[in-house]
Amino acid sequence: MKTLVVIGHPELADSETQPFLKQVGKDWATFHELEAPFDIATEQQLIWQAERLILQFPLYWYSVPALMKQWLDEVFDEELLGPQHDRLVKKELGIVVSLGRPIREFQSGQRQAFTIDEYLRPLQGLALATKMKWLSPLVVSQFAYQSDTARQKLAVAYQQYLSLPQPVRFKDRVAWLTRQLATMQTNTKDTIAQQELQQLAALLSMKQEQLDDLNDNLRLVRETEGY
Amino acid sequence: MKTLVVIGHPELADSETQPFLKQVGKDWATFHELEAPFDIATEQQLIWQAERLILQFPLYWYSVPALMKQWLDEVFDEELLGPQHDRLVKKELGIVVSLGRPIREFQSGQRQAFTIDEYLRPLQGLALATKMKWLSPLVVSQFAYQSDTARQKLAVAYQQYLSLPQPVRFKDRVAWLTRQLATMQTNTKDTIAQQELQQLAALLSMKQEQLDDLNDNLRLVRETEGY
To answer: Which chain A residues touch B126 with a CB distance below 8 Å?
Structure first.
């Protein structure tokens, strides 16, 4: 999976979120930080080479910052899409959006009134018009206030968003974690850490087997009951 | 009603729609054509002076062009809104959006998949967050292909959108047309044109009286029937 993360942030130097995501995502994708003016041909080349295109930005007035809109307005032209508008077919369009307000405010009856999905309709429209597969957006809510644990969970969710088939299945997540544990075990020289990682991997494997058994039983019950 | 029309069009010189709207709207509003870079203080002064703020733009990838987004990102700051976010209270936010595709495509199951209302959620969110009254958008669909009659209708709808209380009532539209006919009658020196305008005004007035009568009858019927 060749993933290209396009970052549209007008004040990248002040961002806490973006360096974190870049650090944890660097082995999983190519990162491209937008800076105007754009060389249209180079930008289009980058997009054609990618299989999964991720637009990553802070939500400014409920949409992409002007810098990213400029990139979309200038780069997504007839040349990029092709005469039949089919040059981006089979590519995927993902969104990583960071919020300054809590995610719970984004629903009817709350302060932001509409959901993130509703506010992102223009980008979903872009995916439809260019025949790209739309991925459910990954929302980063108030990164500055997140605990270390929350950030670790975000790191895993982000790495999986960059690399796993979407929409993601639980089984794929577990397989992904198992592979990660194996790699960490190989890379560490600390024997105690190695043992701990081995134990974690064994635990994960056992839990997955139990889950498989439960799923088998559930299937049997369903068949017996005639569902 | 002090109406400010802010035009965000990156290629104004090539636009057919914008000069038309400016020509027919010039007596009804102040027109402000955006050009970057912006002097933030001047822009904010313009907004504070207006009672009705109209954002006028061609739809680019289902949202405002980058130029207008830049204006929103830079000008709509804490200074404009005030510490209590109440400096724009009682102002109205209207949208005049022009489309390169037919309006019928903007619905579920059609090519553009979502309605204009859905695509404009970010601007509606802006109105809510700044406590401005949101006006139903005025859509200009494929101006280049419009007949003269369609353009004349558009001119009237546009002038009314700039000047009448919203949402507009039928009675207000008729009163507005009557005033327009009276003004035209005063301004022309052609006696035949004067007579024709007078006849039109008389016809309009008669129709309005008939409508009032019908409404009275309808009310009586309803009361008798106990609705």
So the answer is: 61-62
Task: Please report the ipTM that was assigned to this predicted complex.
Answer: 0.91
Report pLDDT digits (tens) over A58-103.
999 999 999 999 999 999 999 999 999 999 999 999 999 999 999 9
* Contact residues, chain B, for A122 at CB < 8 Å: 61-63, 119, 122
For residue B9, with 0-12 CB atoms within 10 Å meaning exposed, 13-18 middle and 19 or more buried, which class applies?
buried
Q: Which residues contact A113 (CB under 8 A, 6 or more apart)?
A: B124, B125, B128
CATH code of the domain made up of A3-166: 3.40.50.360
Q: Does the beta carbon of A73 lie under 8 angstroms from any beta carbon of chain B?
A: yes
Tokens representing residue A177 in the block: 């974690």
B10 touching A (Cβ < 8 Å):
yes
- Are B66 and A60 inside 8 Å of each other by CB? no
Are residues B64 and B8 in contact, defined by beta-carbon separation less than 8 angstroms? Answer: yes
Chain B residues whose beta carbon lies within 8 Å of the beta carbon of residue A72: 60-61, 66
- Within an 8 Å CB–CB cutoff, is residue A61 touching chain B? yes
C-alpha triplet A15, A140, A50: angle, nearest 5°: 85
For B61, half-sphere exposure in the C-beta direction (CA atoms, 13 angstrom radius) is: 23
**pLDDT tens digits, residue range B59-74?**
999 999 999 999 999 9
* Cβ within 8 Å, pair A124-B112: no
Q: Domain boundaries in chain B?
A: 3-167, 169-227
Closest-CA residue of A relative to B129 is A112
What three-state secondary structure class fits B122?
helix
Dihedral (Cα; B78, B80, B84, B89), 10-degree rounding: -150
Superfamily (CATH) of domain B3-167 = Flavodoxin domain (3.40.50.360)
Report the pLDDT value the prediction gives residue A223, as an integer from 0 to 100. 86
DSSP reduced 3-state for A138: strand
